[in-house]
Amino acid sequence: MDVFYSALEQVLRPDVLLIILGSSIYGIVIGAIPGLTATMGTALLVPLTFFMDPVPAIGAIVSATTMAIFAGDIPGALLRIPGTPASAAYTDEAYKMREKGLVELALGTNVICSMIGGLVGVLVLVLAAPQIAEFSLMFSSYEYFWLAVLGLSCAIMVSRGSAIKSTLSLTIGLMLSMIGIDVVMGIKRFTFGDTELVGGISIIPTLIGMFAITEILRKIGELRELPSVPPVHISRMMSGVGSAIWKYKGGVARSSILGTMIGALPGAGADIAAWVSYAVSKKFSKTPEKYGEGHIEGIISASSANNAALSGAYVPTLVFGIPGDTITAILIGVLLMKGITPGPMVFVMDAGLVNAIFMVFVLANVIMVPIGIGAVLMSRHVLGIPQAILFPIILLFCVIGAYAANNTLFDVWVMLVVGLVAYVLEENDFPLAPMILALILGPLIEENFMKSMIKADGHLIEFFSRPVSGTLGVITLAIWAVMTVMHLRHAKRKHAASLPS
Amino acid sequence: MKINDALFGIVFVLVASAILITVQSFPTLPDQPYGPATFPTIIATIMMLGGIALCISGYRERAHQPLIRLAAVMKTRDGLVRMACVPVFMILYILLSKPVGFPIVVPILLAAFLVITTRNWLKSVIIAAVTTALLWLFFVDFLMVSLPLGILTKVIY
């Protein structure tokens, strides 16, 4: 009980509550403006979290992302433009509802289902994370090595596009993580004689470059004015929502759990959860023919799933220090900056912090309803911010953010180079999620790999000698085998198709 | 901007080769063949294999994939200029903020960028001035970040 009260004390401080409120509003704005993603919003928050204590820093990220994922639904329903990729799965469905004069019902359902999905995800997090953490206390370097490799393998598997490009993206992240002092002998590696690189590549400019500069470069070329937004009535937003959700309660429960599980898979985030849940919901629906015609059932399922995925991603993040998606990868970077290494020991040594994180999640999901409704009512103003003004200001914010953490212009160079390289890579279908996951997990993998190699005296069979490590190792190798077979089949089909008949 | 996979493959193979050559000089642990070079060697080998695979696929697809194809937006003058403004803004900030000072450089750079995106001089200058002031208040006065004052250091102190 003491731990609970201590956590409560950490969360219910006026400054923490104010930060959560401010971040929620920030998240709503980021999510509602097409082109600004939740990941980009998180990357832009990182420089500010540098100046905060761990609980408010995590609170800021959790509340901003929770709101952003919901807010992405607003332009989706009103303008047929998803605010974030997590809303893309049901944008057409929501827009069809607008055409039927049911946009308020769609948005009201979005906000309530997002809250339910988010809370189910938190419930799973609260129930499962401590149990898994307790079990994983007996893990050795072998288990940690395989877990991290399994996480990266999943990230490649769930990435859209070529497995080779995902793997190469991963190797870039791992190589970037090796810059600086090595974990085995403490020698300098790949620093090119530059003292700025001895401490490793700075995480803040790298994140901003990867997720914000790329987005600015993509959007600034073709600036567009958004069409005007129709007026939204609050009374219509709430009537009919309860009965619609009750009618499809099974879908809400199924999608929330499915979303949490997908979120927990490294590399798979809220967008994949929404697509999968929408498809599963259609498959199980009694009226699948109504999908695509402005049917609320698909919206209920997918909007529950994407917020559930956000919470689910925190299970592997907190328990093993293995990020479930790009947002939690950034969060791990923030925790490491604060001197906190996520993993099972956090549950033992800093139970107050873990409980505080749980509470922040609950709080963020609950306040999403009033703030979300307010955002829908204000959507006309938020969507009216001209992109021609927005992106130059965001760029300036990026520059100051990259500079502020270490007060060095070298970090602005890092942001520039990473941003340009990441832009070119993404334009050519190299996914960035494996890269950021690898950058964060690189030191963990190398350290545990080297420890294991030294312990095993180079005998690789030792990596499979313990029951859990053996199982994880076999699963990982099976995933590699499946990916290789799939890739070869795909290549064979592509080659056959390209041959003249 | 689409680049043929083979070009990417060549870059990856070159980078991997450079890493493999660099790690040759790294020491190993006493009486053990492992050390700081072990992990980079494994990763660089994977990178090289992936690079070779991209070279092959890029070569096979050469009929459909030109070496470099600019994105549609880069073919328009306005789009290209706006995109070029992003790195130029950052480079000018890096080069000028310390000697000249944040309060002078940033409003000019931001106003120039806004003029290019909005084509409205007055609005751009006002927004640039207000944004700079707000960011200065937030970062310097609230978060205690020391943004460079440049030539203003002598004036103020």
Counting H and I runs of at least 4 residues, what is the number of helices of chain B?
A: 6
Task: Bin the helical content of chain B.
Answer: over 70%
Find the count of extended strands of chain B (DSSP E, 2+ residues): 2
Q: Mind describing the biggest β-sheet of chain B?
A: 2 strands, antiparallel
Q: Which structural class best describes the helix and strand composition of chain A?
A: mainly alpha
Poorly predicted regions of chain B? none
Average residue pLDDT of chain A: 87
Radius of gyration from the alpha-carbon trace of chain A, in angstroms: 22 Å
Shape of chain A: globular
How many discrete domains of chain A?
A: 1
Most extensive chain interface and residues per partner = A-B, 58 and 65 residues
Q: Assess the beta-strand content of chain B as a share of residues.
A: under 5%
Low-confidence stretches of chain A: none
Give Rg of chain B in angstroms.
24 Å
Q: Which oligomerization state do the chains in this entry correspond to?
A: heterodimer
Task: Report the principal-axis shape of chain B.
Answer: flat
Taking the sheet with the most strands of chain A, its summary is:
2 strands, antiparallel
| Order of H and E elements of chain B | EHHEHHHH
Report the β-strand fraction of chain A as a percent range: under 5%
DSSP strand count of chain A: 2
Please characterize this protein's 3D structure.
The complex is a heterodimer of chains A (501) and B (157). Helices cover 73% and strands 1% of the residues of chain A. Chain A is mainly α. Chain A has one domain (2-498). A two-stranded antiparallel ribbon of chain A has the order 1-2. Chain A starts with a helix and ends with a helix. By secondary structure, chain B is mainly α. Chain B has two domains: 2-69; 73-156, no CATH class. Chain B contains six helices and two strands. In chain B, helix 1 runs antiparallel to helix 2 and helix 4 (102-118) packs antiparallel against helix 5. The longest helix of chain B has 24 residues, at 77-100. Chains A and B meet through helix 9, helix 10, helix 20, helix 21 and helix 22 of A and strand 1, helix 1, helix 2, helix 3 and helix 4 of B.
